[in-house]
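Tokens for chain A. Residues wanted.
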């Protein structure tokens, strides 16, 4: 979940000893642009707040709450300072237990009064982290026992199987995203993108907003801001030049939106990281 120069398709490297990716993420305020991967992603927030945007909805997670994002689903995240557990489960891990797991979507509503199943998933995720952290003798047996139990609860209580997914439409949108990520420093307009990828401009705007929950023009701006943030943290280049080099020429507006998404002004972020 850390913000960086990641592409629109996220390559996930599994932890070799357990055949999936598990880590604890500790992030300062930030934004991660739309991306997808061929894993099912489970995120449990331990402290702070994280907002996930996908399938035209925003899901706000607080401490003790989790989300599950299906394979191939376009999603982004906007987070305050937080600590979260992230598990990314490859489809190959699930194949022997669930047919066509790559087509699963998951609906997990806000839990004012958590159900017993929800509480059990949270407790199991916490146990998984504990087992993997200390790695006592035989930990892999216990890890997979807990992992499979957690997945069983998630798939049977929150999964929606064999949903009709417009694969062609999704792939076309992902192609548009790839182009934005490659050319974000240049002048990009909805009309230009629509013409290049054979869309009607109004239709492209509408379907993009329906699918991602954010307008196409705002998304382009957020991609630029994510690169601005990366350079502010990882380089000594002048802040004005960073904005311009990443395609943002209205510095006042860029600074205002930067503060909105990253919780501090660019110069404050740079000072904090030194």
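Reply:
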């Amino acid at each position: 979940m850390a913000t960086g120069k990641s592409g629109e398709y996220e390559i996930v490297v599994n932890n070799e000893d357990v055949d999936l990716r598990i880590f604890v993420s500790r992030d300062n305020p930030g934004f991660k642009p739309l991306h997808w991967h061929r894993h099912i992603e489970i995120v449990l927030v331990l402290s702070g707040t994280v907002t996930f945007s996908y399938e035209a909805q925003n899901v706000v997670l607080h401490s003790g709450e989790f989300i599950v994002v299906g394979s191939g689903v376009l999603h982004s995240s906007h987070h305050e300072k937080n600590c979260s557990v992230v598990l990314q489960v490859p489809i190959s891990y699930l194949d022997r237990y669930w047919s066509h797991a790559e087509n699963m979507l998951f609906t997990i509503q806000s839990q004012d009064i958590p159900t017993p199943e929800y509480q059990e998933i949270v407790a199991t995720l916490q146990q998984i982290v504990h087992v993997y952290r200390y790695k006592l003798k035989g930990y892999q047996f216990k890890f997979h026992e807990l992992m499979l139990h957690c997945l069983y609860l998630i798939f049977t209580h929150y999964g929606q199987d064999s949903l009709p997914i417009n694969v062609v439409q999704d792939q076309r949108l992902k192609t548009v995203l790839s182009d934005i990520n490659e050319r974000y420093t240049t002048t990009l307009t909805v009309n230009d993108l629509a013409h290049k990828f054979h869309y009607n401009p109004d239709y492209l705007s509408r379907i993009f907003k329906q699918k991602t929950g954010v307008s196409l023009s705002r998304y382009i701006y957020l991609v630029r801001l994510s690169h601005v943030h990366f350079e502010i943290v990882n380089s000594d280049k002048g802040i004005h030049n960073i904005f311009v080099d990443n395609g943002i020429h209205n510095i006042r507006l860029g600074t205002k939106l930067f503060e909105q998404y990253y919780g501090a002004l660019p110069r404050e972020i740079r000072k904090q990281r030194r």
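The longest helix spans residues 139-158. Residues 34 and 76 are 4 Å apart (CA to CA).
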